[in-house]
Design a protein that fits this description.
Length: 111
């Protein structure tokens, strides 16, 4: 099982590297399956940058690996520029402090 977990962790690392904004949530961008995932999608829609949502609702091994890697038990889990930021509670606080737009501007200037 540890080999499988390693493979899942490598997949997660690859996904977070390849997607400047990545949300691991319940459901998809077009069909979120929980209010928190929907709220996170709406949060990023405001900024107009491309982002991806990966549905991990029915993928318990991946959800467990994500929780282990991030030390964050709940979904959604947001990665920006390959770094874990938490969920919309964290992002809302960052937004109030004026930290989100500069972060996104920096990430998307790299592309």
């Amino acid at each position: 099982m540890s080999e499988q977990n390693g493979s899942i962790e490598e997949t997660i690392k690859k996904e977070t590297r390849e997607n400047p904004i990545l949300i691991y949530g319940k459901g998809t961008k077009d069909a979120p399956r929980c209010g928190f995932t929907k709220e996170t999608i709406q949060f990023f829609d405001k900024y107009g940058h491309p982002y991806q949502v990966i549905d991990v609702l029915n993928d318990m091994p991946k959800r467990e690996a994500l929780s282990k890697m991030t030390h964050w038990p709940t979904l959604p889990k947001v990665f920006i520029g390959g770094e874990f930021y938490g969920d919309t509670d964290i992002l809302d606080e960052m937004e109030k402090k004026g930290e989100v737009k500069p972060l996104l501007d920096r990430i998307f200037q790299k592309k």
